[in-house]
Model the fold of this input.
Amino acid sequence: MLIIALSLPSLAAPAQDANALLKSVDENLMPESYEATRRLINEEPDGGKKEFTFFTVKKGKDKIAMLYIAPASEKGRATLRLGDNMWLYIPNVNKPIRITSLQSIVGGVFNNADLMQLDYHVEYDAVVAGETANESILDLKAKNNTVAYDRLKMWITKKDTILRKVEAYASSGMLIKTLEFKDDKNFGNGLIRPSVIETSSPLYKGYRSVIVYQRIRPRQFRDEVFTLNYLGRLGELR
Done:
């Protein structure tokens, strides 16, 4: 009994280490509360492109809002995420519309959960799955069935704990999409991270979507900013 009891901590350690590593990945991706400007490019099989620009604000672990800056036809629209709940605000419409994480209100391969991503360690538990010469590999399992993807596989650099690739899987084990994190950039305030995220999916043959981070900086916000009533005023924060 004593031998068994003494062995338990060592069995638990890999999961504990994996979750600590996952939290470090989150910290290296974004400040806890921040503002960011991003450009989204959706590429279609016929060579066509659709582009959007967003102003995004986040507070803590579960509050994020996003304002459409461009194109002109979308300007003034906004989305809000509070935990697992999401809404779309359209100017001149009476009230915000409920949306889901797997929907994509901008089209392309990124869905609403990708564009309004919470910290990975908030939504997933991690275990070490392996390693390469330069990267650690984690398997992530969703903490509940409201998370967009049941499981993620994640590649992280050993040298500086920077995220390089994520594979997203359904509960059936089917690969839904792959996200690659590229072009490290110094955004200031000690934040060095990939400035480009590219995604493709076997479910969307010939389609590719890219997010380019143009600006990220720490910023504190009042809780009022992350309410349905404030969505029409997000532009005041720019």
